[in-house]
C-alpha cells in the first residue's frame, strides 16, 4: 500500500533553541504539512517557525498543551496526524516505521514513536499496562525493561504520537481540561474504550532533549500532579481517586520534583 499523508502539529512555548531541528527533521522525513501553535512565547519561536515556511498560529496567551494540539489539528486535513514536541527530532525512517502499523491494520488508532536520549537510550516509562494505583507503585519498585518489539500498549507519549484522523475524531481530540501532562494517557484510555488499538513501535526513534522545557521543576511538578489528580478523578471511583491523591503527596516527600 502507498504511504499515508501525514500532517504534524508542534506546540511551542519559548522553544526557540530546539524548534529549527524539529521542523527540519519533519521535512526530511516527508511530513506534508506542519502547523506550529505557539502558546504566547516570549522568545522568537514564532519568527523561527514562520521563517521556515510552516503554518504558525500565535496565541495571545497560554491555554495549555491539549488546547493547542486541538487547535493545530483543526488546521490539518491529512488522514494521519503527528503530534511532536519541539525538543524532539525524528531519526531516519521513524515516521515510515510507525505509519506502517496504520497501513497494515484499520484497528490501530495510535502509534507511539520511541523517545530516546542522545545516545539512543529509550526513556524508561512503562506504557504496557493501564495506569492504576498498583501499576504506579510497582513501576517505582520494579522498573520494566524497555520494549524491544512493536506491541499493543495502554498509552503512548504525546511527545511523539501518530494518530489516525478517524480515531482523533472518535475521541474529539485531547481533553482540554488537562493543561499539561496526562492528556495523552487520557486520550489513549478513551480510544481503547472505543475499541481502537494503541501500538508502541520501538524502531521508530525520536531523539528527545530532556530538560529543554522552559518551565521550572516546581512548576512542572505542580502541573503534573494536578493533571494526575484530574485523570484519576475522571476515570476511577472516589475512594481510588482519594487514595492516589494521598499516596502522591507522600511520594513527593521522597521525590519532590518530576524529572
Question: What's the structural blueprint in terms of helices and strands?
Answer:
Blueprint: E1 6-12, H1 16-28, E2 33-39, H2 45-51, E3 55-59, H3 65-73, E4 80-84, E5 88-90, H4 94-104, E6 108-116, H5 133-141, E7 151-152, E8 160-164, H6 165-171, H7 183-193, E9 197-208, H8 217-235, H9 238-254
Parallel strand pairs: 1-2, 1-4, 2-3, 6-9
Antiparallel strand pairs: 4-8, 5-9, 6-8, 7-9
Helix pairs in contact: 1-2, 8-9
What does this structure look like?
There is one protein chain. The chain contains nine helices and nine strands. With 259 residues, the protein is of the alpha/beta class. The protein has two domains: 6-213, Spore Coat Polysaccharide Biosynthesis Protein SpsA, Chain A; 215-259. Strands 1, 2, 3, 4, 5, 6, 7, 8 and 9 form a nine-stranded mixed sheet that branches. Helix 1 (16-28) packs parallel to helix 2 (45-51) and helix 8 packs antiparallel against helix 9 (238-254). The mean pLDDT is 91.
Task: Please work out how many helical segments DSSP would assign.
Answer: 9
**Count of β-strands:** 9
Which range does the strand content fall in?
A: 15-25%
CA-CA gap between termini: 41 Å
Helix content: 25-40%
At the fourth level of CATH, the homologous superfamily of the largest domain is: Spore Coat Polysaccharide Biosynthesis Protein SpsA, Chain A
* CATH C-level name of the largest domain: Alpha Beta
Order of helices and strands: EHEHEHEEHEHEEHHEHH
Any idea what the radius of gyration is? 18 Å
Domain count: the total is: 2
- The oligomeric state is single chain
